[in-house]
Specification:
single chain, 753 residues, mainly beta, 2 helices, 53 strands, globular, disordered N terminus
Length: 753
């Protein structure tokens, strides 16, 4: 763990290295004992630095755009290095990017990554960003020839993206888990000669064994922006006539920013520099088949791969022909409250646009796929279902066959789990729109995403750009989310996220978004400069029964619990960002104090009491009953040591075990009504807590805790109750600092009552 004192000392060390890099940049150097590897393309070359006992090798697969580099040696560390280096000379500012896609474990401290090196001597000055099999990333540097190496480390595992960027006399290291959003791991001002090399480095940390690493998408470019946008996806027609075709696509992503799109008709560039994600082709020939593709570009001129082609045929005249009726309507599964439907696709003279699903002749929802999950049903009840198809011109087919399905009887188990969405990227917070849409955040990607009618939309609602910030395997990024109580009319979404300030510090802020048709833009920044760090950023954000915005921030590495410091506090704001006149500390957003790292918020039905889950130190995780103006002990007191004057003790705390409690929710329906559900990260479970009453205050007894789904889903991050009585939770295994890398899920607990 990097403590604040270590960070300050490291920063001071950096500041003392004031010698400038020559402005002439990298120049071709005389290379001693250089070996040109025929297996790798020009201008790449290879050299075993420091004469390791086993000679390394390198090869390149152009079809996969992948380098394979093997190396042996004692280490890249100390005063002299032993490793295999695949390199090239480099001139000017720029960056090298690579995905370390695999690494053999010859030793827990074997290293593979990217390097900028002054010479090819074993004791050369260098800066590198390396990954180890078991000990995470390391941003390393040797500031003097023959000097001792230094480093900054952070936990992670491959596959991982790494980037070294040179701007003037400063070299920065970045890491990412998707190659799009980058978290900086370190920076250095260093005096080097003009003759420098950039490349891929591998050492086994074992003199008698080779370690092999594969590197994908390696880019070296003097512009600094070397990563092209992702290819546009979900290319589809929105309307087709005899002479026009309006198409749309899902926006591409880029580490710097997408500038515009080039559109191709039958592989010929037809329209360049389109800034929107829709375009209407005109002047087409009736009754003709066309193929359309789209490519994205960034400001540096990097061009994405082409989208998958969209093939469509213009009509011969105005389209009045309806699609054929869907057939073979069946139910693939059902619970006591839901029925999953599947059917055979319809056909149309132009194309089928969407299917409408009817339950007892009432529209239950629509989808572009040939399956749909109808929810909110009554147990042990028969329903009649039909499906109709629509085309782009609005023609509606006849109904499918009628399918009668009886839901299951109520089960002794209150809920049946169903996976709604899979392969998510560190989901963090969930909320519901009045129309049934499910919105959730992904912490590391900076994306808000949406589930519509049981289907996860491929297009993000928003992908945050600058100044959004996250560091992989940390606790910052895009965290809390809440929808406005009047979302159906104002479409406001509130989010809490980490960002970089103008003086390069990590902070947190609350932002209001405005959504339209599943796409959102930043509307207003409500509060900024909340203390941020690698860990303990708080981040849960909810709207209370009083229509006020509540959220919390952690107090990582800081012992200041005064009202002038905003770390370790719970906050309360009006929905426009102003401070409520009845806040406990006057003209301050602070609602309560003495919090180490608040993670979950929920109000008890019927009493409107606010409960908060909180990460403790050395297992003393807490559930607190929050009252305005109260002090909850941190950093002086926690757990069972809080019966002190002026300190409010927790309702319950983990004693001798670690829960790492996160999102919490009160259940309002079914046999668990009135219980508090607490998701656990470290505990890998959901704890159901029974809330009692004594002397006018809530109580929680440790003897009445129920442990649900232990080790079934891994780390569980957030849980909410839907209006239909369903419970939804998200896991936090992929991209979390203590996760095992398994795909993250959004899971629905369908009620059986």
């Amino acid at each position: 763990m990097i403590t604040r004192s270590k960070i300050m000392a490291l920063s001071l060390c950096f500041c003392m290295l004031l010698a400038l890099l020559p402005t002439s940049g990298f120049a071709e150097a005389e290379v001693e004992e250089e070996t040109v590897a025929a297996a790798v393309p020009n201008p790449w070359k290879q050299k075993n630095i420091g004469s390791p006992a086993i000679t390394g090798s390198a090869s390149y697969d152009p079809a996969a755009d992948q380098f394979s580099v093997s190396g042996a040696g004692t280490d890249i560390w100390g005063k002299s290095d032993q490793f295999n280096y695949m390199y090239q000379p480099w001139t000017g500012d720029g960056a090298i990017i690579a995905l370390v896609s695999s690494q053999t474990n010859s030793h827990d401290f074997a290293k593979a990554g990217i390097m900028i090196r002054e010479t090819l001597n074993a004791d050369s000055k260098h800066v590198d960003l390396l990954l180890t099999p078991s000990n995470g990333f390391t941003f390393q540097y040797r500031t003097e020839t023959g000097g001792t190496s230094q480093s900054v480390k952070i936990a992670s595992t491959s596959p991982a993206w790494v980037k070294l960027e040179r701007k003037g006399n400063v070299i920065k290291g970045y890491v990412s888990n998707n190659g799009l959003n980058w978290g900086d791991l370190g920076n250095l001002t260093l005096n080097m000669n003009a003759s420098l090399y950039v490349g891929l480095a591998v050492t086994s940390h074992n003199v008698s064994s080779l370690s092999t690493a594969t590197f994908d998408k390696v880019k070296v470019n003097a512009t600094g922006d070397v990563f092209p946008p992702t290819e546009p996806t979900n290319l589809q027609a929105n309307s087709v006539t005899d002479t026009t075709a309006k198409i749309s696509w899902t926006a591409s992503l880029d580490d710097v920013g997408v500038k515009d799109y080039d559109l191709y008709k039958d592989n010929v560039l037809t329209q360049a520099n389109v800034t929107a994600t829709t375009y209407n082709f005109t002047g087409l020939t009736p009754d003709t088949t066309y193929n359309f593709t789209v490519k994205a570009k960034d400001a540096a001129g990097n061009i994405s791969n082409a989208s998958s082609p969209l093939t469509l045929k213009t009509t011969t005249q105005t389209d009045t022909q309806a699609p054929t009726a869907p057939t073979a309507l069946i139910s693939s599964s059902q619970t006591s409250s839901s029925v999953n439907l599947n059917w055979t696709a319809s056909t149309d003279n132009v194309s089928v646009y969407e299917y409408d699903i009817y339950r007892n002749d009432t529209l239950a929802g629509s989808t572009t796929t040939t399956s749909f999950n109808v929810t909110g049903l009554t147990a042990n009840t028969t329903y009649n279902f039909t499906v109709k198809a629509r085309d782009l011109a609005g023609n509606i087919s006849a109904a499918s066959n009628t399918l009668s399905v009886k839901t299951n009887p109520a089960s002794s188990d209150p809920y049946t789990p169903e996976v709604v969405a899979n392969n998510l990227e560190t989901p963090w917070a969930i909320d519901f729109a009045p129309d049934g849409r499910i919105f959730f955040t992904e912490r590391n990607s900076g994306r808000v995403r949406v589930v519509v009618n049981g289907n996860l939309k491929s297009t993000p609602v928003i992908t945050l750009g600058s100044p959004f910030y996250y560091m992989p395997k940390s606790e910052g990024g895009l965290l809390g989310l809440a929808l406005d109580p009047n979302f159906s009319t104002n479409h406001y979404i509130y989010i809490y996220h980490s960002y970089k300030t103008s003086d390069n510090k990590v902070a947190n802020r609350v932002v209001r978004l405005k959504e339209n048709n599943n796409i959102a833009t930043v509307d207003k920044v409500l509060i900024t400069n909340l203390p941020g760090a690698v860990y303990h950023n708080g981040g849960r954000l909810k709207i209370g029964p009083d229509n006020k915005l509540y959220f919390g921030d952690g107090n990582y590495g800081n012992k200041d619990d005064t009202l002038t410091y905003l770390g370790g506090k719970m906050f309360r704001l009006n929905l426009d960002g102003t401070i409520p006149s009845d806040n406990p500390f006057g003209d301050s957003p602070i609602y309560s104090r003495g919090h180490r790292n608040p993670q979950g918020l929920a109000w008890q039905p019927g009493t409107n009491r606010l409960f908060v889950s909180e990460h403790g130190e050395s297992s003393k995780d807490e559930i607190n009953f929050i009252q305005p103006g109260n002090n909850y002990g941190w950093p002086k007191y926690e757990g069972g040591n809080q019966n002190q004057p002026g300190i409010t003790p927790p309702l319950i705390y983990a004693n001798g075990t670690t829960w790492a409690p996160s999102g919490i929710a009160f259940v309002t329906q079914g046999p668990w009504a009135g219980n508090l559900l607490v998701t656990n990260l470290k505990g890998k479970q959901i704890i159901r807590m029974v809330i009692g009453e004594q002397n006018g205050k809530p109580t929680i007894k440790s003897s009445e805790l129920n442990y649900l789904f232990l080790n079934k889903y891994g780390r569980i991050r957030d849980i909410v109750e839907a209006p239909d009585g369903s419970l939804y939770f998200v896991t936090s295994n992929n991209g979390d600092k203590n996760g095992d890398g398994t795909p993250d899920k959004l899971v629905r607990l369908a009620p059986n009552f």
